[in-house]
Structures are given as structure tokens and as C-alpha cells.
């Protein structure tokens, strides 16, 4: 692998020779005025290529892609545990784990089955949000298939689940982060698109119950809170979610679950990008976001089996200005962030994970 050796030039050149090695590292040729810059974009690339970027638009597209993909991904390493900082660092999930930025609400949107490369190539709106706000370039799903990743987010564990079966096959005991927040006097909601009724435990048309993790927690208290606060989302123009956004009444933790088309499982990445474009302006215009209280997280449950389960992760908050986090992160760390923002202890394996939002200074 070609190692990065210089800092980026102060001013981008309009003419760049890009040498793409077999390891996926891109080495733009330098000049007397501007030294070369090596950028490692992909864990693997099919074959080497040489490309002249002759137009400013192509150079801009490269810059946006590099922002989402990151500069430290050419390691070929398989994902592993992501421990919390030690030796005096604040513990993940503790109330002091991140600076006081005013964030006391988190909205998480989980999309389906895309690698970083795929998203960068087909989702220009998402890339624009990463460029404007923030992106984690080394974020990993826990395993395949979908369900274990949702459970890691909601419960801090995969609970040994290695399939996508319905809740009747996996009656999980103990608290979820949703139920734990409600018990602690905070608030939590799932807004699920195409769900026919509250806390629906069966698939229905384009609603997939495996993408709605609260439905798997089977304690009596968990079931009761799920049946109250796990609700159909509605659309960007009408329904429960847009009502809560407009009123400034989003919960401490909100999970927005797109249907099987809008999450990209059954439809294209471009369709997912358009769906995000339909929702995010509305969310960002709401008082929770404009008052700096709300952080928005967009990520994926798992990759498409082509990148070692490294997936896109974009964080949106008014305080972020093109921030790029290269620390290795995962769904356990996102669960830890939600717990910490809600002032509760992180659950199970999330207790030792690196706090994702803290890595962004939130």
C-alpha cells in the first residue's frame, strides 16, 4: 500500500493525474508547485486504473467521495471489537464522555446493505451532507445478516442471533435502550414506515419487522412501552414523525425505520438518496435541530459483502463543519452514545465500546 506522506495542498489543482493502485490507494501526481498527495479510498479495488481529472466538476466529485470514504481504509483488516478509550479517558456512555454541546436528542436512520463505495457512487445528497457536517470513515457493522446489527444498536448485544427471523423466534429478555430510557423518565420512539399498527411483530407489505428491533424485547414492561411508542412514521408531509418534528417534541432517542424500498434493500441507492432528501430538510428545519439539541445519525445495518462490513456513517449537527472521524467505530458505540445522551448506563457490550457521538465532539 502507498502510505500517505504529505498534507493536502492549500489549493486544489484543476489538472490531476490519479494513479489508482491494486490496493485501492489513489495517488494524484504532483507538480513543482503542488507536491503529490496519496489518498487511500477503498479496502479493495478490482484492478488498477489511471485517470486524468480534466474538469473541475470531476475534481469536486473526487473530493466529496474521499470525504465519505476516508483516508485510512487501505488496511484490508477484518472488523473486530472496538474498545472504549482507557488510561484516563472518559468511559463510553458516562455523562461526562463528551463535551457539553447541548445535544440531548438523537435521531438514528438505518439504511440497508450498502458499502461505502456504493453510497459514494450513487448518493450525491448523502455525500453533500457528509461534506457539510460530518462522516465516520471507519465505521463497521457487527455481522451479517441484518437483525444482529439492529439488536446491537437497540440492546448492546447480538444476543447470539445469526438470522433474520421474526420476534416469535427470538423472545429477548432484559431491557432495550428504548425501554431503559422510558423507565429512567426519558423518552424513546420508533417511527416505522409502512408499519400497519403500533409495535407490529409481523412483516406487512414493505414493512420488515427485522428492521424494528424494539419488537424483539419480550419483557412485559418492554412490550407495553413498545406498544405505546413504536409507531407508524407517516410521510414527510403528514403523520406522527413530522408532527413531533414541527412541535419540537422528538424523543431522547428516535429510530426512523424506512420501508424495504426506501432503505435500499429492494430499491436502488438513488431511491434511498431521494428519500433522505425528502426527510432531512424537514428534520433540520424543526426546533430540536435549530436549537442544537438534536444530532442526526445516518448509517447502514451491514454492507453488501464487498468491503469487510465497513458501512457509511454520517452525523449531522449544526456545530459540525465537514468533520471527519477516522477512529474505528461500530453499532455498539452508537448504542453507547444514545445511552450517554439519555443519562443512562450503556447496555451489555455497548458498555465497553467507543462512544460514536463523543468522537464527533457531541
Features:
about 350 residues, eight-stranded mixed sheet, four-stranded antiparallel sheet, 11 helices, about 15% strand, disordered N terminus
Structure, explained:
It contains 11 helices and 14 strands. It has helices at residues 56-69, 116-122, 124-132, 146-155, 177-183, 220-229, 240-247, 269-285, 287-290, 331-341, 356-359, and strands spanning 16-20, 25-28, 39-40, 49-53, 105-111, 134-136, 139-140, 188-192, 230-232, 253-257, 294-300, 313-316, 323-325, 329-330. Strands 9-8-10-5-11-12-6-13 form an 8-stranded mixed beta sheet, sandwiched between helices. Strands 3-2-1-4 form a 4-stranded antiparallel beta sheet, with helices on one face. A two-stranded parallel sheet has the order 7-14. β8 (188-192), α6 and β9 (230-232) form a beta-alpha-beta unit. The longest helix has 17 residues, at 269-285.
